[in-house]
Structures
1.
Amino acid sequence: MPDWPYELLEELCDQVGLSRVRRLPAGGMVPVEPPEGAAYWAGTYARLLFWPACEAGLAESARTGQAWLDTVLKADEGGRQAPVDGYLVLAQETAPERGLVRALELSTQVCRKHVIWPDESETGWRGLAAVGVLGLPREAAFVRRQVQPTLDDEAEALWRRIAEHGHAAIAAEDRKKVGL
């Protein structure tokens, strides 16, 4: 197995309030088995999935990693009042084709996707600095956990509907109201 940046990811994730989940969710809950070397970090506001890929199968690795993360995010959001951000970090042993990286990283389906590979940068991994959640200052992660906004009556009613029915159901209702 390649020398993946687990220690660096552990340090960066810890700085933003994400903790490593040593045992990946599996079984009937997820549609695919994670590849050897996959790792997962979770916090109150975000999840990060490290998913090793090979260049020949980068697009397929992105699809399977995204499907795995989507299933886990949906399960995690089951009883939550707020959605959770998902980050898929696809790791390669060598520099991938730039056009494919750009297409994957610009895709907004399910989660934010990033492709990383070893290089001579400060971290030793090209693309790692672009993973948004890892760039948050430690204080931002903790402040986000504590902030409780003051809501007016209309917002409070919407919040109760979301808590009762889930954000996806409320969004679907609202789309029907405006004909989308």
2.
Amino acid sequence: MAGSVGGEGRVTVVRLLQRWPGRYGLVAYTTSGAYGETALVGYVPVPGVADLSLMDVAARHEPALMYGSTGAEGFAEACWLISVGWSARTVPKPGTLELPHAAWTMDVDRTIDLGVVMYGHTRLHVGRFTLTDPDQMARARALLKADPGTQ
């Protein structure tokens, strides 16, 4: 599924190391569907920071070693990305931004149907994630500015 989706609800934003030794981006995690069966993990665009290919970032972590494969292309990478978002929400590290009520849109680059339940989800949308409220977007982008040496 390519296109755009949107919604409202709880959003978790966290810094993500995209390239060693210190190149960071921002990742947002939320869910959709009646029971949250669809995970949405997207990079938050930040001026001056290159857009992230989250599937490439995931692939560099060799997720098939942990998650194996169901035969679906992108399965292990999708599981790794869902784990990043789910973990950021369930065990937030310092600097995690929790927005209990946020409107958002996502330009979907890719959708992966997992074929199994992983961290409570059966599907992942991955792409570019934007918070509709400019103040919330500024708060999210400020996560990178908290440590200016990491951009």
